[in-house]
Structure formats: C-alpha cells, structure tokens
Design brief:
globular; 31% helix; Rossmann fold; 20 helices; GIY-YIG endonuclease; 30 strands; 704 residues; single chain
Length: 704
C-alpha cells in the first residue's frame, strides 16, 4: 500500500534501541517505503558503527536536529506494528522499573526477528521433507472439530458458577482481576479452560495462559490441546529453538494463533485480539525476572489486562500475600473452589513429625529420613502406590568437610560452599550453584593434607542412594535440575511418573508445582527447617507455599486411596507447621497479614532495592553511601521515604564481585517512584566517574 504525497514529506520517527542510554533516537522515514510509519513498527537503523533493530515509538513532523544530517531508517520488518498494548506496557515498565524502554521492549522480540538478514527467511514456511511428529499431531488436532471427550467433561456446581462469572466479565468487556483460589486438586485448570473455551468460540479472539516453569508446559499443553481441538496453540519459553520461538511469536502477532502458552516471557508477546489472561500458580517466584529488567510478569499481566479491559485470572492454591490481600480488600474478586474435583478424592492427612520426640524415643534417623517415614514408605510400596520424598536441595551433599582442621569446600569466587555432586558410581566433583565453577574432589585436605574428607548434610542424590540401598527392588526416580538438564528429559521423567513407572520420586520443588499425579499416596518432607530462620521476611510464606503445594500432590484421585503427608521438623511449634497441619491457607495468610501490618512490611509498604557490585567491597559500599547522602540532601526528596544503611548482601560475593544493597521504603507508591528516579539520576551520573562499579535498582524485590 502507499500513502498520500503530502505524507511523503520527510517524517521523523523516534526509535527505541536496546541501549543503556535512556532516550529515543531520531531517524528520517524512508520515502521509498510503501507504508506510513506507525508506532510499533519494527525497523532496522544504523546506530553508531553498527546496524541494529529498533521499534518506532513516536512519529513526528519535526526534529531538534539538522534534518539533512539525520540518518534514514534502512528497512522495515514485513510485519504489522506491534500491538499497541504491548508497546504501552513496555513504556509503563520502563518507567516503573527504571530502565530505558529499548532494554524493555527489544529483548521481548524473538532473536531472529532482531536480525535483518533473517526477515526474508522468516517470512517463508519451513521447508522440511519429513513432517515432524509435532506437526502431524497439530494437523490431526486441526482436523478435529470437537471430541467426545471434551463434550463429556462436566463441571461441579462451584466450577460452573465461576465459569459463568468470568464469562459475564468477558461479555461486558470490562477489566476485572480475579483470584481463583482452590485447594490442590480442586480443578482450577479445568475451570479456567471452560471459561477460555467460551472466549474462543468467536474464532478470532486470543487468550494467554502463563505458567511459572518450562517443565509445566507439556502437561498443560496436552490438556489445552484436548480442550481446544482445532485451535492453534503456540508455546513461548526459553526451552524452544530460536526458529520455533520466532515462528510462534509471528503467529501470535498476526492473530493466527488463538492460544499463547508460556512462561514469564509470554507476557510481552504481541497479540492483536487478546481477550483473556490466566496466570497459573501466581504465587511462584519464577514470575519475577532476576536479570536484566527485573520485572514481575504477574504484575504486568494485571496491567495489560486493565489496559485492554479484559478479565485476568490469578490461579493458586496458595496465593501470595499481596494477591490474597488485594482480594480481601475487594480490589480483586475472589473465586473459591473448596473441594477436590475428582470423585471420591480426599485431601491428604498432614502429620507434623517432631524429630526431637522421635530421638527421645530412641527411633533411628539415617540420612535425614526417620524410622517412621521409612516404615510408611515400605507400607506404600507393598500396596503398589507411589511415594514422593521432597528435599529442596540438589546434589549429593551441600559441603565437603575435613574433620581434622575444619576445612570446608568453599568457592573461591563466591561466598558459598561448593556442593558435592555424584557424577558416576566412582566419580564425584564439586560445583558452585551460584557461579557454575566445577572442579574435582581433592584427594586430600588442601589445608592439612588429611585424606579423610566427609560430606556434610544431604541432597537429592544422597537420598536417592540411601533409598536405593533400603529398597533395592523399587523403581526410584530423581527429579531435579541435574536430571532435567537435557532437552526433553523433564518431560520424559514426568511421563514415567504419570504412567506409573516409578515407585518413589525424590525431588526438589520441581515436583511440587502443578503436576497431577494420580497414584501418589504418600509425601515425605525432609529438611524443611532449613528455610525457617532466613533473614528474608518472606521466608515463612515461601516455605508454607512450597509445603502446601507438595502436600497437594497426594490423594488427587480415588486410585491413591487414603493419602498421607509427613513433614519432619525439630520445630513443630513454628507458624507454618501450625497451619499446615490443617491445610489452613487463609488462617496462615491472616496471621502473616497481621505481622506485616504491625511492622509496615509489604503489602503495607512499597520497596525497592538499590544493588551495587565491584571487585572490592569498599568501592561498592562507597558508591551507594554517596548516593544515599546525595538523595537525602535533594530538595525534592520525599520526606517520608526511608533509606536504610548500605549493607553487604546475604550472599556477599558471587563470581568474584562483592555485592551490597540499600533498601528504599515508603508507604506511598508515588513517593517511592519519585525517590528511585532521583537515585537513578545520581547513580547514572556517578557511574561514569566510578569505573567498574555496577549497579541497578530492583522494584518490588522478592527477597531482602
């Protein structure tokens, strides 16, 4: 298409580029292009000595620079502009999280669409002589109009009421944020899928479903494909290839894909007809990006829903305190499912096992597994039922120790111990879980030469080894970051579990999230106390959520029978265990709310963390101390905003960098925003004078 001659006069576009410079860059629109410039166009421009891809943010008829010296836009991607809500969300995130808009927006575009030389290739269909299994599956699904299985799925009364409420919100075309809270196994997924089915009936609408981790996508993808035969589903997460991500993103952007399923990156996917957003397991920390732009995908999902005037569903059996509090304050609507969906499925009996009492009674406890728990495992095996042993620590042992001199296997680059990992039957090594450094186990103590080095503590590998020696005939599967590292390995392991090819599953929190195990009748939790005494005020909330989630994997079907959860602890009087015994989520959150209110912690205040890092601790400390003094002296500094002292971080050194932090806190969101803008300005100026000192500001930190 072409635009009018009058429009062919030199137009100026301001382009966002992935650059640390907090500004837009002026370019002249090329008159040879067949389209007029629009906000959201992906373009190629010359930037310095390089060529890069940017996004048009503003279209102007004048510039402050010499029009004859302004560079022209070199090329425009063969795509419509990004959806307006995605660009608006990037503008909001740039302001809220204090990052240049280019650093927010450009990385959300798939890598191949950020390479001009790939545009022509991407515009063509993949040429493959052999149709892949996935393609064949998609073709088969596309030919099915509606399966008998889908028709026969019925909802209980509570589920039907919720679906109707959500559908009314969709019909009224108004924003509403809903907390879908239900006990584990209550059918939250089935409920929101029925609502989304109604949304997609018009054939043009698009919906987005977000999950916290990649390993949750295969199971949900299967459920979605069954529920929506004939609808195009695309997956967006870091585990797919660059080409697949580019193709999937393009289908969503062009409106050809009706369902977008993905992890936190999915929230930035351009979708012109988006009508509903679901954030599953909304409490999960994985929704908070921990590098680059430190955004919360859950919070941006709520913002995007409000921008589009569409319903948003935040689903969880253990909602975050912030979400739960918003629901109690009527900012969000609460949709409750109080019973398990499966017929005759009963919630598990949760038992808090006091290890101190067990010790007094002379009961054995080997490798962290009590005699009582071992006996229960044996009974479960005899009945042919599955068991889960949950320990949130991977590796063989957290640290290697010399009993002669006290040497510990410390990482030379981090203020952390190197974890002992078992590679083969006869080979072990030491690995730092923070910087990734690996080295062989020393034959003798580096300090005193003692050859008797002992592992301290236990991880998933050690528990697996111990259980294998006790139950040699049992099929034991270990599920952690080590066993799921290879592509497709996580999906294979979970398939084994779902198909009943595992008797005992040993795993970290990976096994606790969102999985629907039919035959798990026993869950044993070991070493949970390690999280009780953290300096982070959110530690008890995270522990409670983790244990409730893993407990919820038991008794999800009639097949599992009478199910039990045994949580081992030396502190049965601790608040999380008190409420876990009765699976009282609301009671725990109510007490947590009272505690936070008394000391003015979120959600009763708003926080930001200013991080600094340098090879030397003094340099990092000095920069943030200077920033604090300068900010306090600023005439427009909000008087009620609190600046804490600059202190080393809990994990002070990672990869050779010393790390410090300064907490900024206020009971007013606008005042906090103003204060971090002031700090941002100072730190930007100071950074040029202090070479080697890195810094960033993290809004709404998940840990202090």
């Amino acid at each position: 298409m072409s635009f009018e001659d009058k429009s062919r006069e030199k137009m100026i576009v301001q382009v966002a580029i992935d650059s640390p410079l907090n500004k837009l860059f002026d370019y002249a629109w090329n008159q040879e292009f067949a389209v007029a410039p629009q906000k959201g166009h992906i373009v190629q421009v010359s930037f310095g000595r390089q060529e890069c891809v940017g996004v048009v943010i503003h279209v102007l008829d004048k510039t402050d620079y010499d029009i004859e010296k302004i560079k022209k836009v070199q090329a425009i991607a063969p795509l419509p502009p990004l959806s307006s809500d995605v660009v608006a969300m990037a503008e909001f995130a740039a302001t809220y999280y204090q990052r240049p808009i280019g650093e927010v927006l450009i990385p959300s575009i798939p890598k191949l669409w950020r390479q001009r030389n790939k545009w022509e290739l991407l515009g063509k269909e993949k040429k493959n002589s052999k149709t892949s299994a996935a393609a064949k599956k998609a073709q088969a699904l596309g030919e099915i109009k509606e399966t008998k299985e889908t028709k026969e799925i019925t909802l209980n009364n509570d589920q039907s009421i919720i679906v109707e409420k959500l559908w009314n919100q969709s019909v009224s075309k108004r924003f509403s944020c809903n907390l879908l809270q239900g006990v584990t196994g209550s059918g939250k997924t089935l409920t929101y899928l029925h609502w989304l089915k109604k949304v997609l009936d018009d054939g043009e609408s698009q919906v987005m479903i977000m999950v916290p981790e990649i390993n949750l996508t295969p199971q949900l993808e299967s459920s979605v494909e069954k529920a929506f035969p004939g609808k195009k589903l695309v997956v967006m997460h870091s585990g797919i290839t660059d080409r697949t991500r580019a193709d999937n993103w393009e289908k969503a952007h062009l409106g050809k894909a009706q369902i977008i399923l993905g992890t936190r990156m999915a929230i930035a996917t351009s979708a012109p007809n988006l009508k509903a957003i679901v954030v599953d397991e909304e409490h999960d920390l994985s929704y908070k990006q921990q590098e680059g732009v430190r955004y919360s995908a859950r919070d941006l999902a709520v913002w995007r829903g409000k921008k589009l005037d569409i319903p948003v569903v935040l689903a969880s059996a253990t909602p975050s305190l912030e979400t739960w509090f918003h629901a109690k304050e009527k900012r969000y609507e609460t949709l409750s499912l109080r019973t398990r969906a499966a017929k005759n499925a009963k919630p598990p009996l949760i038992q808090i096992l006091d290890l101190k009492q067990e010790q007094k009674a002379g009961k054995k406890n080997e490798h962290g597994i009590s005699e009582f728990l071992l006996n229960e495992l044996r009974k479960n095996l005899d009945q042919g039922l599955q068991s889960i042993i949950y320990i949130n620590r991977r590796g063989y042992s957290p640290v290697l120790n010399c009993e002669a001199c006290g040497w510990l296997s410390d990482c030379v680059k981090c203020s952390a111990h190197m974890v002992l990992h078992k590679i083969t039957e006869h080979k072990k090594n030491l690995c730092c879980h923070h910087c990734g450094v690996m080295k062989p186990v020393p034959k003798a103590c580096p300090d005193c030469g003692n050859t008797d080095l002992s592992p301290l503590g236990k991880g998933t590998q050690k528990i697996e080894e111990h259980l294998s020696s006790i139950f040699p005939k049992a099929k034991i599967l270990r599920v952690d970051a080590d066993t799921t590292r290879k592509k497709g390995s996580a999906e294979n392991l979970f398939s084994e579990i779902h198909e009943g090819n595992a008797d005992i599953i040993v795993g970290t929190q990976m096994i606790a999230k969102g999985h629907d195990y039919k035959a798990v009748s026993l869950v044993g939790v070991i070493d949970a106390d390690a999280s009780l005494f953290s300096q982070d005020f959110r530690a008890s909330e995270r522990l409670f959520a983790q244990l409730m989630q893993v407990a919820g994997r038991a008794g999800r079907s009639e097949e599992a029978g009478e199910s039990r959860v045994i949580i081992q602890t030396r502190y049965p009087e601790a608040t999380p265990y008190k409420y876990l015994k009765n699976a009282d989520v609301d009671g725990f959150l109510e007490e947590l709310k009272t505690e936070r209110s008394m000391v003015g912690l979120p959600p009763f205040s708003y926080q930001a963390l200013v991080h600094g890092e340098h090879k030397t601790l003094l340099q990092a400390l000095d920069m943030l101390k200077d920033a604090s003094q300068w900010a306090r002296a600023d005439k427009i500094w909000p008087p009620k905003v609190m600046l804490s002292d600059v202190i080393p971080r809990a994990m002070m050194r990672i990869a050779g960098k010393e790390r410090v932090q300064m907490l900024v806190e206020s009971d007013n969101r606008q005042d906090l925003q103003k204060s971090i803008e002031i700090l941002q300005h100072y730190l930007t100026e100071a950074h040029t004078k202090r070479k080697g000192v890195g810094w960033y500001i993290e809004r709404d930190p998940i840990s202090i």
